[in-house]
Structure formats: structure tokens, C-alpha cells
Amino acid sequence: MKETLKPGIVYTHRFRVPASKTVPALYPEAEEFVAMPEVFATGFLVGLLEWACIRAINPHLDWPREQTVGTHIDVSHEAATPPGMEVTATVELLAVEGKKLVFAVEAHDGVDLISRGRHERFVIDKAKFDARLGGKRERA
């Protein structure tokens, strides 16, 4: 981690929602999802918020040796967004506690605030992380 990784980093990420990021596309194997409205899926919204956090801090890491993984997410999904609309995710790094990073996150679709909450990520050494995963696969 670089010395520049400090609270106060703010990043804004924009994403136009395609049909492939709607509820029916989330789990096409599940007839319940396929029957639901074609709106931006909460699962993909979470991914977008994570993506914005990653983009915010990657310049402050020794990327790609150092990376981050999501460890906690607590967000609302307050309004439906149809495909074609642009979602703006804004994230702010609130705290750096060792390797734990805490963010405030929110997303807006140009009409409504669609999400807000907190997200935590943990800085990892990619090679060490992959080695632990290999050991887990061997134990399975």
C-alpha cells in the first residue's frame, strides 16, 4: 500500500445499464428471476459499487500484486432503474484500518438516489491469496 492510501479519496464511476445487468439476467437458470421485471439487479448494483471502490484505490496500491477483496456490504436498493439509464456511483474512502478499507457508497440514476450504504474491502497480496485458495481446493 502506498502512503497516498488515506481517508478522503473520492471517486465517481458512471455506467449505462444494459439488459444483461437486469434481474432476469442475474440467474437465467432460475425461472423466478427470469419472470421478474427487467430492471437493474441488486446483485449487479453491488458489483458496480465494488468496481467504483476498486477504481478509487487501485492507484494507491502496488497493483496488480496488491489487490482488494470485498468483505462486507451494507447497502440499500431504493429505486428501480430500467436498462438504458446511466448510473453514477460515488464512493469515499472513510477509513484505513491496517489492511481493512471502509467506504461510504451511493448510486444515482439521474432521477432517483438508488442506493447508499457502506462497503468494506481488504488489501491482499494476490500470490499469497491464490496459494491459500489452492490449499483450500486440495482440502475439498
TrEMBL record:
Matching InterPro entries: FlK (IPR025540), FlK-like_dom (IPR054485), HotDog_dom_sf (IPR029069)
Active site: T42, E50, H77
Positions contributing to CoA binding: G70
Fluoroacetyl-CoA-specific thioesterase-like domain residues: 34-126
Residues that, per the record, bind substrate: G70, R121
Name assigned to this protein: Thioesterase family protein
Organism: Azospira restricta
